[in-house]
Write a structure and sequence with these properties.
This protein has 337 residues and is an alpha+beta fold. The strands form 3 sheets. The chain has a 4-stranded mixed beta sheet, with helices on one face. β7 and β8 form a beta hairpin. The N and C termini lie far apart (58 Å). The model has no long low-confidence stretch (mean pLDDT 94).
Length: 337
Amino acid sequence: MEFALTLLQWFRENGRDLPWRQTRDPYAIWLSEIILQQTQVKQGWDYWERFMHRWPTVEALAAATEDEVLREWQGLGYYSRARNLHYAAKQIVALGHFPDTLDEIRKLKGVGDYTAAAIGSIAFGLPAAVVDGNVYRVLARHFGIDTPINTTEGKKTFTALAQSLLPSDNFQFSIFNFQLPQVAAYNQAIMDFGAIQCTPSSPNCLSCPLQESCSAFRSNRVSDLPVKQKTLKVRERHLIYIYIRCNGETAIHRRGPGDIWQGLYEPWLVDTVPAGAVLIKQNVKHVLTHRILLADFYLLEVPKKPSLPPDYIWIKETELDSYAVPRLIDKFLQDFR
């Protein structure tokens, strides 16, 4: 209990005042959690506000097209989040209300244990502890746990510990002139603590309120924890794109399932550079989780439309901004134009 109380006190003095923390609306909270799954708060904030402005309710989001959602998401990466978000919005509308139990929240597309716990505790006061990268780091260091966090054993160990540390009562906690359940405040507190105080590198140990009880600090192992088992080797993939210009039009196609960037558009993707194409940019690097992409971009200006695979469409160059494209393509287009 001392651990939780210390974090709550720290949170009252140092917590981040974020717009989705000024509401108990499960839609707004769910949206923020999906956006922040693979995105820093600073970048995700603008996207959250744009989504809330354009689609203020889950019904409005469900009524949008997938293309509209992907276009609004452009630049955030990990586009499966956007597709899952749209699908889950339709699930919620079909259900008739936002699910308010952990089991029901977990049934939403794209929602795992962490996101379900975050939504459940913040929106509904459910006694569920969140376990994300920040939480793993804080718990591993404070309690001196060297079990790898990306193993089955590690996940079970940290999940059980996190749940045991959750405040047992559910008094209202006041912060930012807003009242929220204590379990919600605690979950937000430990995440902020990991993001601000107990950071991955150069944590602020000297001013840490948990310094005296921190196992890693006492044993000089802060930089060694948490432990992560080595994963798959990152592979490189080379792509060749041809931007065709024909009387003010260009050709694009929508990527299908089973590969990166499902549902997004891209220029003509080839294995061999066609005659007449001029190199515009070479070895443009884009890093994904387990893959490094290196792309070459060529310009092909022709008076007559060439024969392309049937899934390519011709659009006016001025209409390109209406189509959702991967960040790699968007960066090229912005520089090129």
